[in-house]
Amino acid sequence: xxxxxxxxxxxxxxxxxxxxxxxxxxxxxxxxxxxxxxxxxxxxxxxxxxxxxxxxxxxxxxxxxxxxxxxxxxxxxxxxxxxxxxxxxxxxxxxxxxxxxxxxxxxxxxxxxxxxxxxxxxxxxxxxxxxxxxxxxxxxxxxxxxxxxxxxxxxxxxxxxxxxxxxxxxxxxxxxxxxxxxxxxxxxxxxxxxxxxxxxxxxxxxxxxxxxxxxxxxxxxxxxxxxxxxxxxxxxxxxxxxxxxxxxxxxxxxxxxxxxxxxxxxxxxxxxxxxxxxxxxxxxxxxxxxxxxxxxxx
Length: 298
Description:
Blueprint: H1 5-36, H2 40-43, H3 58-65, H4 67-98, H5 106-118, H6 123-132, H7 150-161, H8 165-173, H9 178-189, H10 191-207, H11 210-214, H12 224-232, H13 238-241, H14 245-251, H15 261-291
Main location: membrane
GO cellular component, one term: plasma membrane
Membrane topology: Multi-pass membrane protein
């Protein structure tokens, strides 16, 4: 069908607007990548925007060679994987149980969960509760508080209730119990929903710096995002360099003299952002379906 002149103008305007929006998202990423791959002293003179002018990998050698950053990276990976898997599992069990309309006190439980989603006790009561549970300054303070998400539970509940009842009934007629129905019927049909919510949960764990800043005091337990937050407020390179032998060897090199705090910061930002960005392509097949949950009627 032919477009008239007004439609062509509107189409061109939309394309230009989307192109500018994409540029506004991509450019900061390219800028940080260019600075991280550029000689620090050279980048301090300005003029580096998209492509490194004086290419070097010394910034990444310093970042990846630092023992504190490597350990914080492992903490972040561990909490992201474990927190996402356990969080989805616990929330799915709750949603699956509440999907049974004949469950005793079902309405009361749903109302209670809804209240916890709308209101919370605040930061100080949470801190006191974590202290009473002896979770402060432990790895589990990153896992247990986020095991259950009321919002995710309601999304899962809505999705499970959308599964044809005939499938559930046929499984029960064949002798399947609730657990077998969950494993063989509900979970296989819920892959788009689990992928979408899993991605959101993983991003939340990966980007969380607050827990590491306020709930742990040991430097060996801080995640990489908390380390990055500390680094962004640092005034010198002592936070990054430390005193291990690898850094001392780098400090003796002539190239080391040209690094700056800004170039190190950009390298840390890239190292902390790239892994979670690489996860999306593997979940894209399910992600688009998952974000449409509840928007259209099946």
